[in-house]
């Protein structure tokens, strides 16, 4: 039988209020979920959605959650102090909630408390997994074992755009670059949020490709300033792996002394702040400049000593050469005089012999034509005189040519002339001239004398006397 009586009904708001009484009777409950769609209102309230996904990422549950102003201040401070992060999207959290049904806003959860140790534990688990994977692949110690450069010439710097730490770093880096001491090249990447990993990987590939073309001494990763919550984005396996595989040492100055990321663990050297990174680089550069200055002064001092020793040696050798030349010239002059005397003596004897022969012929009455004999005698005398003069002049010219040849030889073999022709004189540490390879012996050091300066040399493996040119 169908009833035609009018149903007894209540309004929607009354029904919701009736249900809300049942909902509010439910006790508080700790719930594990992921934060999504987080918003902070100007009044201080915090609104977000709690979601649950399966292993494949499919959405299983979704519910709105609210943190009222007074509670939000306490809970966010508690969460940040424990984890070093602010509450943000994609964080897995454990929260204490109480259900609420509102006539206008519907069903939602009111967050009463949060357990930050749960989130912190998940971060540590993530770090442990990354660390274990890097060690399993043999990459964890790879960049840490790279040698820290003794000097710096070209430095690659990776940081977020307009980072506070980058400004502090560049104040002193720009001074070094303006003086021509160092060259810095800057690269930008996102260091926080979901895009951080991809941005950092892209920037690292760009730096590595440029390194293979031009070469960097070190890669500096700095951040500085900002919230501690940004550190979570740096705990990424792909980013850490690229740093481990870096062809150059990596310095990390993220800017937090207490908290550290996986990047701090795998880099060659970690610094607490960007300023400490540039401090280290600057000190290495200063040490290099001081060492260069000392080496330069040592070279000048050694060069001066070598020049002085070479000058004394050359003066001494020049004295010996001049003395030898004088002796040669004296010997040549004496030889010429003796030769001339011999020629004169020979001519005199020939004249005397001719004269005696003439007298003998005259006495024997052989001379028939006095005029003819006179002419003959004159011709004989002229011939003898010509012979004497010719022999004397020839001997003198020979002696003169020999003196000129000796002087030319002396000039050509003067040490300064030899050096001007591109030859080099080799001296040992006592300033003694080394004429043969055998004179080197077991020496390890020697000095080369050029036309304009002297240089010190060191034999790495001694002298091989059996080697041939």
Topology readout:
Elements: H1 12-24, E1 29-40, E2 46-53, E3 59-67, H2 69-83, E4 92-102, E5 106-114, H3 116-136, E6 154-159, H4 164-178, E7 183-188, H5 196-214, E8 218-222, H6 237-244, E9 250-253, H7 262-266, E10 269-270, H8 274-363, H9 370-412, H10 415-420, E11 425-427, E12 445-449, E13 454-458
Parallel strand pairs: 3-5, 6-7, 6-8, 8-9, 9-10
Antiparallel strand pairs: 1-2, 1-4, 2-3, 4-5, 11-12, 12-13
Q: What string gives the helices and strands in order?
A: HEEEHEEHEHEHEHEHEHHHEEE
Structural class: alpha/beta
- Strand content is 15-25%
Strand order of the largest sheet: 1-2-3-5-4
The best one-word shape is rod-shaped
What gyration radius follows from the Cα positions, in whole Å?
52 Å
Percentage of helical residues?
40-55%
Largest sheet: 5 strands, mixed, barrel
User: What distance separates the N and C termini?
Assistant: 129 Å
Provide the low-confidence segments as ranges. 465-469
Compute the average pLDDT.
82
**How many DSSP E strands?**
13
Helices, by number, come to 10
Counting copies of identical and different chains, the oligomeric state is single chain
């Amino acid at each position: 039988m169908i009833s035609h009586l009018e149903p007894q009904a209540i309004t929607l708001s009354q029904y919701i209020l009736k249900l809300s009484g049942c909902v509010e009777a439910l006790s508080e409950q700790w719930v594990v979920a992921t934060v999504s769609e987080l918003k902070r209102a100007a009044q201080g309230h915090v609104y977000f959605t709690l979601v649950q996904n399966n292993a494949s990422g499919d959405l299983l549950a979704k519910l709105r959650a609210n943190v009222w102003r007074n509670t939000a201040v306490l809970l966010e401070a508690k969460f940040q102090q424990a984890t070093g992060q602010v509450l943000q999207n994609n964080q897995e959290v454990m929260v204490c909630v109480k259900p609420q049904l509102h006539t206008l806003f519907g069903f939602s959860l009111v967050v009463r408390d949060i357990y930050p140790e749960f989130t912190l534990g998940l971060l540590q688990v993530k770090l442990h997994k990354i660390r274990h994977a890097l060690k399993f692949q043999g990459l964890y110690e790879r960049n840490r074992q790279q040698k820290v450069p003794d000097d710096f010439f070209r430095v690659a710097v990776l940081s977020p755009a307009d980072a506070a730490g980058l400004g502090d770093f560049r104040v002193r880096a720009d001074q070094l670059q303006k003086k021509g001491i160092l060259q810095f090249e800057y690269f930008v990447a996102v260091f926080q949020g979901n895009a951080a990993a991809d941005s950092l990987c892209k920037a690292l590939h760009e730096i590595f490709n440029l390194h293979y073309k031009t070469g960097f001494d070190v890669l500096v990763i700095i951040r500085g300033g900002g919230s501690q919550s940004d550190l979570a984005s740096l705990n990424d396996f792909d980013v850490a792996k690229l740093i481990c595989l870096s062809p150059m040492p990596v310095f990390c100055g993220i800017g937090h002394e207490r908290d550290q990321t996986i990047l701090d663990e795998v880099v060659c050297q970690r610094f607490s702040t960007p300023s400490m990174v540039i401090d280290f680089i600057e000190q290495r550069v200063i040490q290099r400049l001081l060492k260069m200055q000392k080496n330069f002064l040592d070279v000048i001092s050694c060069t001066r000593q070598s020049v002085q020793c070479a000058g004394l040696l050359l003066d001494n050798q020049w004295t010996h050469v001049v003395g030898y030349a004088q002796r040669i010239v004296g010997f040549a002059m004496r030889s010429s005089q003796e030769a001339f005397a011999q020629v004169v003596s020979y001519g005199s004897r020939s004249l005397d012999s001719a004269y005696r022969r003439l007298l003998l012929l005259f006495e024997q009455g052989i001379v028939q034509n006095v005029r003819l004999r006179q002419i003959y005698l004159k011709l004989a005398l002229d011939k003898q005189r010509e012979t004497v003069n010719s022999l004397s002049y020839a001997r003198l010219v020979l002696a003169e040519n020999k003196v000129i040849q000796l002087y030319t030889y002396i000039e050509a073999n003067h040490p300064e002339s030899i050096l001007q022709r591109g030859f080099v004189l080799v001296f040992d540490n006592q300033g003694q001239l080394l004429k043969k390879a055998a004179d080197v012996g077991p020496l390890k050091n020697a000095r080369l004398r050029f036309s304009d300066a002297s240089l010190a040399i060191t034999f790495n493996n001694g002298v091989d006397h059996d080697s041939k040119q």
